[in-house]
Design goal:
Blueprint: E1 2-4, E2 16-20, E3 25-31, E4 42-52, E5 55-65, E6 68-74, H1 100-106
Antiparallel strand pairs: 1-2, 2-3, 3-4, 4-5, 5-6
Length: about 110
C-alpha cells in the first residue's frame, strides 16, 4: 500500500489516501468531511473491487468515525458506459431530468 498525506506510519489523523500499489486503486481515505477542524476524521474504506470496463469499481464502502461504522454502502447491478441525458448534468434540471436509477426501478 502507498499512503499519500500521512506524516509517518502512526499518523491516522492527517488527511490521507491509501492506494493499492499493484492495482493503483484507492482503498482507504482519511479526511474530515466538512468545514472546521473540530470534526472527527472519517475513515473511509473502499472494498470488494470488481473489474469493470477496463478499470476497477469499489462495490462496498464503509465510513467509520472513531472506529464505529457510521455508514455502509453496498452496490449491485452496476454497469459501465451507461448513456445519461445532458440534463442530468445541469443542476437546475437534475430533479426533473430522466434519471437512470429511478427509471431502472420502474422497469421489471
Amino acid at each position: 500500500v502507498i499512503v499519500v498525506g500521512a506524516r509517518d506510519a502512526a499518523d491516522l489523523d492527517s488527511p490521507q489516501l491509501w492506494v493499492d500499489a499493484k492495482r493503483l486503486i484507492v482503498t482507504r481515505v482519511i479526511a474530515r468531511l466538512g468545514p472546521g477542524t473540530e470534526l472527527a476524521p472519517q475513515d473511509i474504506h473502499l472494498d470488494n473491487y470488481v473489474p469493470l470496463a477496463g478499470g476497477w469499481l469499489a462495490t462496498r464502502i464503509v465510513v467509520l468515525e472513531h472506529g464505529t461504522a457510521r455508514q455502509t454502502e453496498e452496490y449491485s447491478r452496476w454497469e459501465a458506459n451507461v448513456a445519461l441525458p445532458a440534463e442530468f448534468f445541469v443542476a437546475e434540471k437534475w430533479t426533473a431530468a430522466a434519471h437512470w436509477a429511478i427509471e431502472r426501478r420502474l422497469v421489471p
